[in-house]
Structures are given as C-alpha cells and as structure tokens.
Amino acid sequence: MAHGSRSRFAVIIFLVGITIIAGLWFVRNSPKTIEEYVEVAVEPSISPDYSDIVIPANIAPINFRILEQGQQFYTRIHANSGKAIDIFSKTGQVRISPREWRVLLRTNKGNKIFFDIYVMDAGQEWRKFRSITNTIAEDDIDGYVVYRRMKPIYNWWKGIGVYQRNLVNYDESLVMHGRSFEEGCLNCHSFVGNDPDTMTLGLRSAAYGSSTLLARNGTVRKIGSKWGYTAWHPSGKLAVYSINKVRQFFHTGRMEVRDVVDLDSALVCYFVEENKAISPPQLSDKNRLETYPAWSPDGKYLYYCSAPVLWKDHDTVPPENYEKLKYDLYRVSYDIDSNSWGRAETVLSAEETGLSILLPRISPDGRFLLFCMCEYGCFPVYQSSSDLYIMDLTTGGYRSVTVNSKYSESWHSWSSNSRWIAFSSKRQDGLFTRTYLSYVDHDGEVHKPFILPQRDPVYYDSLLETFSVPELING
C-alpha cells in the first residue's frame, strides 16, 4: 500500500516537472517581438470586453481571453511613456503582471493605452489585429467595493454573503456570511457616504429573527428593527430607512419570471445617539408607498420614491393594478439643527416619464442625480426594461445614459470624487447580475462600462452567483 502511494506521488511529481519544463521552453522560445505579420483591419474579439473603455490608474489588471482561433498568441500593452508589457500565450488567456501594470498606468494618467494582439494561425503565420485603445483617467477610483454574493435562486438563502473587494488588486474578504446566523439572509448594506467607519447591515434569520447591525468605529451593536433601504445623513447622526411589506410572485411567459411588489411601505428616521426612531408624516402617508431614500451631499434634502397605493387589499399577491404602479421622485427639505422637515415636493413624476422612477443616488459633488426607470413597480433588477438615467440638478434636465443594455441595469453607487459609478447589470447573459464600473466625466457623460476585473480571465464564464448592490468605499 505504501509502495503504491509512493509510485503515485512520483508520477505526480514527474507530470508537474514536465509541465514546468514545457512552460519554460515556450517562454524561452517565444520571440521577443513579432516582425513578420499580416495586418487585420478589425479589432480582435476578447472576453471580457475591455475595449474602448476608460479605466482608473489604480485598477487591478484587466485580464482577458482572446477569442480568435490560433496556435499562439502575443499581446503587447503600451502607452506614450514607460516600458511596454509583452505577454505570450498558447491558450489565448492574457494575465498581466500587476507590478508592470501599475507602473504603466501611473506613468500615463490621462493618456491612451494600447493593446496590440497578434495571433498565429494554423499555417504558422502571424496576424496583427487593429489595436484596442483604452484611456487611463486622471481620476482614481475608491479603493474598495462592497457587494452581496448569492445564488440566483428565489428560495435558496444558503450561501449569502457580503464581501469587500480591493479594486487595486483582486483580494476579496468576507464582511459577514449568512451561516453566522444559521443560513440567514443578509441585505441592505449601507455607509455614510463612502466612509466604511459606519456601516449598517440588515439580517433575517429563522433562529435569530430580523434586526439591523450597526458597525461604527470598531464596535457593533444590534438594533431591534429590520432596516430596509437606508440612507445615512452626511453628518452620520441619523439615518432614514424604509420599512417594506415586500412579496415575491411569478410570471409564466417571460425571460425573468420573478417579480416583486411592495404591498405597503414608509420611511423612518433613526437618531443614533438617542437610539430613537420616528416616522415623520411627510414620509409615511398612508395613501402612498415611500421607499429608496437618498440624501443630498449637504444634508439639506432627502430624495425618495413615492407611489399611490392602487389596492385596498394589502395581503393578496399580486394585488390588483400592480402592473400600473409607477413611482414618482420626491424630495423634502430637512434642517438638522432644528430637526424640522419641510413639505414634500415632486422632482420628477411618473406621469411625465411614463415609467417608474427608482433608486435615486446623488453624486458627492451635488451636480448629478443617477436613477433608474422601468415599466412599472419597485424592483428594477427583475425588470429587463430598467435603464439608468442621469439628471443635472442645476437645470433639472435628465437623459438616458448611452451605455444601457437590453437587460436590467440597477443598484448603482458613486465614488467619493463623483467620477466613477458602480452598478449591477445583467448585460452579459440576461440572468446573472455582475458588477460594472463606468467613468463619468465633468459633463455628466457616462462612458462605456467594464466588468469588475478578476485574476482569472475566464472567471465569469462558469460563475453561478450574482453580485448585487455594489457600494464604493474608500479606506
């Protein structure tokens, strides 16, 4: 028995050695540059699609796979200044050296970066495709993004976790997992702006009930009530959260069969030092459904979504007229010194847009409001019609961003410098939400999004999990 184990171990060592030697031989015998080639007048197909994008100088390497057929592959990454990065591959997978990548990006902030891709065909002839051109932004992105990962199954709560991902590299660390609460559900994580020193996280557990965890300055305490969608006042002294009677139901004849209705909802204001919650009349109209709060950066206005209640029965699912429900965008003034609320006013009405207005988020510089709109209802991630829109708060004008896809866009957040957004999109296949990043220039133009880079170029091809509610944080 021992002899058999030693034999198997020897075989494994031999195979590993052969693999290493073959790899070294390939690297040593690969040419330093390609001098003879045939030019191809189109860009190569790569996955993920990292072409014609704007990237921050502090992003992890955007590894990818070349989809063109070939025997060997060569990628040269270069810019106006600094040493080029040369990568040879037999599989078409391009894994970029993090050290060389950081130097090249930092040296060329505000400039173009080029990806020259060569493919050797079956006849041993190299083809050079048209260069992929990207831009390195002058503005960095926040160092981390926090998101929720889970299986895309409506009745499977096991395996839900909230994670923190380092955007400078690929490090992902667990914030909290549902297994800590006997496979409970975790959701609605929120921060004071982009500051991770204060965080709230909602949990639902058959064993421990429903509550909210408040983490602040290294300590964690439990708040008895379950917070829904939450917006922290910039002062950090209070938070406004929603209470929702959310129910799920199903359709029989469309790609996304799941749907959600909010049978009843209101907004509640929680004061941290007093450990007290109140529901101002302006935010808890019995004839309306209030949800999705968001503060202006100066803390003087609370924006939120509000819709008229179209049913008398608050228990039947789905209720009557659910497909006609559309939310308006409201705001109400607030004075923190006197703790007084003004009168609610309409910012944008569903009557004007013909769509349901959801998830308002204001850029930290106070210039733009990013939101999404869909055909009806309160849950855009289940609506393929959900698109992102941006409003200029100076003029009140709004427009659809040019980078929407035919699938759902939702759950967006701003970077602390107002130059980047993170959002959830199903554009890859219509089924799984993934985290995408986009640059927003000073005119409010949202540039082509790119999927969150991973160390493994084929990471997303077999991943059966969704990423949702990406929140950009610094620190």
Structure commentary:
This protein is mainly β and 475 residues long. It folds into two domains: 99 residues, Immunoglobulin-like (Sandwich); 330 residues, Neuraminidase (6 Propeller). The chain is 9% helix and 43% strand. The protein contains three helices and 35 strands. The strands form eight sheets. Strands 1, 3, 5, 6, 8, 9 and 10 form a seven-stranded mixed beta sheet that branches. Strands 22, 23, 24, 25 and 26 form a five-stranded antiparallel beta sheet that branches. The longest helix has 28 residues. The relative contact order is 0.11.
Structural class: mainly beta
> What is the H level of CATH, i.e. the homologous superfamily of the largest domain?
TolB, C-terminal domain
- Biggest sheet architecture: 7 strands, mixed
Mean pLDDT: 91
Shape: elongated
Compute the number of strand runs. Answer: 35
Cα(first) to Cα(last) distance is 54 Å
The name of the CATH topology of the largest domain is Neuraminidase
Features of the shown structure:
2 domains, 5-stranded antiparallel sheet, Immunoglobulin-like, mainly beta, 7-stranded mixed sheet, 9% helix, Neuraminidase, elongated, 475 residues, 3 helices
Topology readout:
Blueprint: H1 2-29, E1 38-39, E2 46-47, E3 54-55, E4 64-66, E5 72-79, E6 85-89, E7 93-94, H2 98-107, E8 112-120, E9 126-128, E10 132-136, E11 144-150, E12 161-166, E13 172-177, E14 185-192, E15 195-205, E16 209-216, E17 219-223, E18 230-232, E19 238-250, E20 258-271, E21 276-278, E22 288-295, E23 301-308, E24 328-335, E25 340-341, E26 345-348, H3 350-353, E27 356-362, E28 368-374, E29 387-392, E30 398-400, E31 409-414, E32 420-425, E33 434-439, E34 450-451, E35 466-473
Parallel strand pairs: 1-9, 3-10
Antiparallel strand pairs: 2-4, 4-7, 5-6, 5-8, 8-9, 8-10, 11-12, 11-35, 12-13, 14-15, 15-16, 16-17, 18-19, 19-20, 20-21, 22-23, 23-24, 24-25, 24-26, 27-28, 28-29, 29-30, 31-32, 32-33, 33-34
